[in-house]
Specification:
Largest sheet: 2 strands, antiparallel
Strand content: 5-15%
Shape: globular
Order of helices and strands: HHHHEHEHH
Radius of gyration: 18 Å
Number of helices: 7
């Protein structure tokens, strides 16, 4: 299999992946109007695996799970999360964000409600774009992307979503009056 790289420049690749991460879809908690940090936490888990010496662009559910839980727990209160989102949701749904790919056991299967058992039956492992793998292999860019994700997709979203929720509540109150 031939691999074609889109980038020869780390800065260009960094910008490209920051833009994809900016556009990443994140569900919102209904009660406190904050975005769920499951997908960014999954990416941070991949980064931590690489920092710990991961040398192959294959990620199994089992190797990610303990790291994911630790990172989610670390940011749980700061990101005003209501629940720990199980890993099977971002592991499956991150594929819609164009840089996370699942290797299927047979053919691709779609579901609206993945579970760990469903993933075990239907997938072998996941991997990221080769360009992203190369970018994250460079310690400086790995640190920059980690900082970017924490700042822009984990911590910043609380204030934005809270402000939206407060605004929505004010509008509703004004309509009552």
């Amino acid at each position: 299999m031939t691999t074609y790289l889109r980038f020869f420049d780390y800065d260009e690749a960094f910008t490209y992946y920051c833009e994809l991460i900016d556009k990443m879809l994140q569900c919102t908690n209904k009660n406190n109007h904050t975005r769920i940090i499951a997908k960014p936490t999954l990416i941070l888990s991949i980064i931590e695996l690489m920092e710990n010496g991961k040398t192959v662009n294959h990620f199994t559910y089992e190797e990610i799970a303990p790291i994911y839980q630790g990172i989610f727990g670390k940011f749980f209160l700061k990101a005003h999360q209501e629940n720990l989102t199980p890993l099977h949701y971002p592991y499956y749904f991150l594929k819609s964000d164009k840089f996370w790919h699942l290797v299927w056991t047979n053919a691709e299967v779609k579901t609206e409600s993945p579970s760990k058992a469903w993933l075990d039956r239907n997938t072998q492992y996941a991997y990221i774009d080769q360009e992203l793998w190369i970018l994250l292999s460079h310690p400086t860019y790995r640190d920059r992307l980690k900082d970017y994700i924490i700042k822009e997709k984990v911590l910043k979203v609380f204030k934005e979503e809270k402000d939206k929720g407060i605004f929505k509540t004010l509008v509703q109150l004004l309509m009552i009056i």
